[in-house]
UniProtKB/TrEMBL annotation:
The keyword tRNA processing does not apply. SUPFAM superfamilies: ATPase domain of HSP90 chaperone/DNA topoisomerase II/histidine kinase. Keywords: ATP-binding, Kinase, Nucleotide-binding, Serine/threonine-protein kinase, Transferase. It comes from the Bacteria. GO terms for molecular function: ATP binding; protein serine/threonine kinase activity. InterPro entries: Anti-sigma-factor_SerPK, HATPase_C_sf, HATPase_dom. Residues 20-137 form the Histidine kinase/HSP90-like ATPase domain. This is ATP-binding protein.
Length: 173
């Protein structure tokens, strides 16, 4: 006779992530495991993990660690996610603030970055920025089933530029 023990799966989670690339993988792994155990669809889990990666990368690139008022030093940022009663998933990353506000940009075709918030805009039902105590900044994103925009590639790369166009000049003199 097998004994089956019901395991309660949390509908929310929060974790401290080192300010820098070291903790991003661990945060993604933990989110993926928890959301799958909670019964969240693979499509929403995949979008949420990508969004978490973008938010953490932006927090480490543009924000300070929590509790620090200088650009130097080790510290953490906070990653959190929760599932609401209607099945919507909210992903949040909080850092210690920075010199600029999070806004989508229009990077050049050859830019190595600057597409993160455009990716988030294409995947999310909604997103925004909330200011907190002591200069903290939280970027929040709501992800729902079937919300990915049909024009995802256009929204990420910009008008008049297809992903295949990026490779047209490779190998040309």
């Amino acid at each position: 006779m097998a004994l089956v023990v019901a395991q309660e799966v949390p509908t929310s989670s929060s974790m401290a992530v080192p300010h820098g690339p070291a903790g991003v993988g661990e945060a993604r792994h933990r989110m993926r495991e928890q959301l799958r155990r909670s019964g969240v669809s693979d499509a929403v889990v995949d979008d949420a993990v990508l969004i978490l990666s973008e938010l953490l990368s932006n927090a480490c690139r543009h924000g300070r660690p929590l509790g620090q008022h200088t650009e130097i030093g080790d510290g953490d940022v906070r990653a959190a996610w929760r599932i609401d009663a209607s099945g919507g998933l909210t992903v949040e990353v909080t850092d210690g603030g920075g010199p600029t506000r999070p806004v989508p940009s229009t990077p050049s075709v050859t830019a190595h970055g600057g597409r993160g918030l455009n990716i988030i805009s294409a995947l999310a039902r909604d997103w925004g920025v909330r200011d907190g105590a002591a200069g903290e900044v939280t970027v929040w994103v709501v992800v729902t089933e079937g919300h990915r925009r049909d024009d995802f590639a256009t929204r990420v790369t910009g008008p008049g530029f297809g992903l295949a166009d990026a490779y047209d000049d490779i190998g040309r003199p």
